[in-house]
Automatic annotation (TrEMBL):
SUPFAM superfamilies: Neurotransmitter-gated ion-channel transmembrane pore (SSF90112), Nicotinic receptor ligand binding domain-like (SSF63712). Residues 1-22 form the signal peptide. The chain crosses the membrane at residues 239-262, 269-286, 298-322, 402-421. This is Uncharacterized protein. The keyword Disulfide bond does not apply. Residues 48-238 form the Neurotransmitter-gated ion-channel ligand-binding domain. InterPro entries: Neur_chan_lig-bd, Neur_chan_lig-bd_sf, Neur_channel, Neuro-gated_channel_TM_sf, Neuro_actylchol_rec, Neurotrans-gated_channel_TM. It comes from Potamilus streckersoni.
Amino acid sequence: MAHFSCLLCHLMFWMLFVGIHADSWSDATSLLSDIRGIYKKTGKDLTTVVPKEKSDTPVNVSMTMFIYSINGFDAVSGQMEIAVSLSLVWYDYNLYSDITPTTDSDTISFDEVWTPNLVLLNDVHSAERIGSTTYNLIYYRDNGMVEWKPRIILKGSCSPNMTYFPFDRQECSFVFSAWEHDTSQVELVTPISSWDTSMYEENGVWKITETKSEIYVGSSGQFDSYYARFSIAIERQPLFILVNLVLPILLLALLNGFCFLVPVSNGRVSYCITCFLTFVFLLQTVEQFLPRTSYPMSILTIYVVLMMLFSAFANIITVFTVRLHLAPSKDKVPKWLQVFLKTIKCRICKEYKEKKKQIEVNGKVSFVGQNKVGISIGHLNEPKLEDVKEVDWPEVARSLDIFFFVLFLGVQAVFSVFFLIPLGTRA
């Protein structure tokens, strides 16, 4: 009994399935025969004749963009790839005038009736028309409306602006044209001013900030045609770049100034050269994300180049400071260098005050040639530079190390703030 019930269920399911498909097949066959009947009756090839209602009225083609995903944005080559589908709706009066209207909707093959010859003008591969026989059309017999939703992969050219990389925002446009159709034949319209993102899958690198759809009329050289521009604005999610690229650059800029504190015997020159080569490597890494254009240049690129120049300058100074450390201590230090060192260390002021305290007696200042009653007959016995103790070369080298350490850290901090604040405000 159980086997009989199971067999009966399978039989009923098979009959229902075959019946439904038989109806659909018969509808499709009926519509196809109607289309071929029109061709035999009028001699018109429905795939080439624009289905206008009146001779002076163009076919109104409605375009709506549905986006599914952002496959990638290549700033180096200036290309953007997205997965979308175009919802195209128009009224085919060639069919509506010759086919008996009903409440049914039928599926039509792409190569049986007229479809708008849409071409993506800024396609990086070719200028082939949109759509193929893979996606059929839906024809509504009651009003003659045709709906077509071809799914396509758009890969269009886009001019990147990497000034604020990695906080950059890009805007790309995909321009479609009704190829070989002037304004009297086909009119493109966009029922909504944005894209449909209800089926969009989030991207780990880019975030959509704005979408726009607009129609304009342009000249193709021989006649005026309608153009549809679909624009999309995206913003980079910068966390990956910040952690893996920007943070190492900032840390290396900090470490670059510490080369003057490394002992000479422990490879100070090697440390400085390593910092310089690391900046070169990071600069090449940054350039992998950027296009080979001179304008506009990335602020981050300019910053890395400046830090690399600072590192090269630090290498030059390091060579001279190492020579000072190795100079014989018995050699005399030039007067101008002694004055410079004591100026930056404020030793002249300190020694002057100490000398002045030593010549004070009982609250009175002693003068050269002072008589018994305390009347000055000379001048103040001021300390002279010749009286100041001279410095030796090891002390000169140590003082210059501290001076250049503070100088480099200060200058690098100023440049870091000057270049990175615009990036921070952009975030």
